[in-house]
């Protein structure tokens, strides 16, 4: 997606500053699957304790997750990590990454996970559409224009 002008405040670059790291995506994957507790996230991702702690702290600071205290009987209070609206808005990005991996990196056995619509059971698909409802099949059908906040070099 090359633009005919250089953007000094690129939204892609700013987004990657927040989420552009493997462990961050794996933490978000687990959060989207309903995993909320540190020990469960660590078991599911295999992340080292310090790495997971740092990622969770950053996601809370950025407003993608929020901490909610809980206490098991006889235990000290701990925190669960729950997605915020800002965090949930990343779901299409994770689905796109998963579909790309399914298409290009899955072996002969096929993808390891299938996403289906809970209500009807149909496979989940992803499409780009313009505001008029036309399907956009790729970058050749898109024209980048400077936005209101565009800062050029």
Description:
- By secondary structure, this protein is of the alpha+beta class.
- It contains six helices and four strands, in the order H-H-H-H-E-E-H-H-E-E.
- It has helices at residues 11-19, 22-32, 38-45, 49-61, 85-88, 91-105; strands at residues 65-71, 77-83, 128-129, 135-136.
- Strands 1-2 form a two-stranded antiparallel sheet. It has a two-stranded antiparallel ribbon with strand order 3-4.
- The protein is globular, with a radius of gyration of 19 Å.
- It starts with 10 loop residues before the first helix and ends in a 17-residue tail after the last strand.
- The model has no long low-confidence stretch (mean pLDDT 92).
């Amino acid at each position: 997606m090359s633009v005919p002008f250089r953007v000094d405040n690129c939204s892609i670059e700013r987004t990657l500053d927040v989420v552009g790291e493997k462990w961050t995506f794996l933490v978000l994957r687990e959060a989207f699957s309903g995993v909320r507790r540190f020990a469960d996230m660590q078991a599911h991702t295999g992340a080292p304790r310090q790495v997971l702690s740092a990622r969770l702290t950053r996601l809370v600071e950025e407003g993608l997750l929020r901490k909610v205290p809980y206490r098991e009987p006889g235990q000290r209070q701990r925190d669960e990590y729950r997605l915020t609206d800002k965090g949930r808005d990343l779901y299409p990005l994770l689905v796109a990454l998963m579909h790309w991996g399914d298409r290009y990196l899955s072996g002969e056995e096929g993808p390891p996970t299938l996403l289906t619509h809970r209500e009807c059971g149909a496979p989940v698909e992803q499409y780009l559409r313009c505001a008029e409802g036309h399907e956009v099949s790729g970058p050749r059908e898109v024209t980048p224009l400077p936005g209101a906040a565009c800062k050029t070099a």
